[in-house]
UniProtKB/TrEMBL annotation:
Cleaved signal peptide residues: 1-24
EC number: 3.4.11.2
Keyword annotations from UniProtKB, A to Z: Hydrolase, Metal-binding, Metalloprotease, Protease, Signal, Zinc
Family to which the UniProt record says this protein belongs: Belongs to the peptidase M1 family.
GO term, biological process aspect, one: proteolysis
Top class in the EC scheme: hydrolase
Domain Peptidase M1 membrane alanine aminopeptidase: start-end pairs: 312-457
Known cofactor(s): Zn(2+)
Keyword Metal-binding: yes
Domain of life: Bacteria
Protein name (record): Aminopeptidase N
Keyword Hydrolase in record: yes
Amino acid sequence: MTRNLARSLAVAVSLPLLVSGAYAAAVDDSGTATSGATGIGDPYWPLDGNGGIDVASYRIRNSYDIRDQALRGTTQVRFTATEDLSSFNLDFLLKVSKATVDGVAAKVRQSKHELTITPRTDLAAGSRHKVVVTYAGHPGTKHYAGEENWLANDHEAVAMNQPHMAPWWFPANDHPIDKARFDVATTVAQGREVISNGKLVSKKRTRKGTTWRWRADEPMASYLAFFAAGDFTIQKGTAHGLPWVNAVSQQLPAAEQKSSLKLLSRTPDVVKALSADLGPYPFSVTGGLTTGLPVYFALENQTRPTYPAVGGQAESLIVHELAHQWFGDDVAIARWRDIWLNEGAATFMEWRFAEQHGGPPASEALMSTYDGHPAGDDFWELEVSDPGAANVFDDAIYDRGGMTLQALRQRIGEEKFWLLVRTWLDTKGGGNGTSEEFEALAAQVSGQDLTGFFTAWLRTPTKPAKTADNGLA
């Protein structure tokens, strides 16, 4: 995610512990199956995700009435039970009318953010199942964790937000640690368009409207799944051997549509440039979407980031969201406290891209930011490696995260730094990572004890000293 654009554009536990708790079910002393846990084990949002299930795929079949802002549909979730389960949960906000497990009617109960499904028979650990949930409602009336995330008016809707978006439009195991494949079909009135992740599989007209079906070939975190419905100008092609699809809202004035298409057209070239540092682009298609809705952030939806209308010159915004395709999408965080790994890396890659394309070196961006915030400034008070749920998108996460990586580059040297980056992406690709794992890999690749370095940059709420040990001298 790009921080609030009104400001940013004005200023050019270990993983094994989380995983073992993430899919845990509540089992009584007799060993009989009981309910899956209501959360996956992330303390920032205890109800995110659910215990006892590991989702393989989502097959979403929705219809959306743009004028009424009403959504109805069914979602098929294929999963493996990781514990003996008498019931399990999904995260969802709309009203559910029925659910089946393996074709058999199941009991459903809803409480705020949690949808509890009780199958007719218990589910054994290791067994695979298909749950189908039918639902309807107005997503714009729903809220969770203080968030009202549905973005829509009577001309357009776009399901984009972070850290939560899925429960407003499909039932999900809503945490980045449980990636899955997505097949999304959305029906809208004839003459309207729908954009989503991945590749357009089909576009079919019926008496009910037009159904646009998109499929993402690579697994992704649930918050990265999106769809946009409305009137869009769509362009597509292939560049550098990679297919791309771009879309811009026709609700924007003509001049803004033109400049937005110009900006999005830079996507393939930016992907190619990033690939030179980060390795092969991790997905089978790329592109972007510019919405006409009044949003003030961009989001790294997998394969197709979404942007507000910011003009044709905001190339750093494109760089940021496309860098997330590696840092955040392909290698997702294992806990929300690790968000600096996403935002810091995307910020650093903005600096790196600039230094390669006629701008100042990243070292200058580091020192400019360092000198621009005196000791005692609020900027230094946040613990970057554990900022708390209320601060996951604080400016310090972006800037101090980017500073940490550039300082590390200066501390361990160019060759070892880029070896670290490529090794991290190669070994964690398609999965998840924690800050501690990244730090351990940095020490291994560099052959240095970096404990003090990461303590100063990530865990100390004071300005790091300007020393060689901190990568600043």
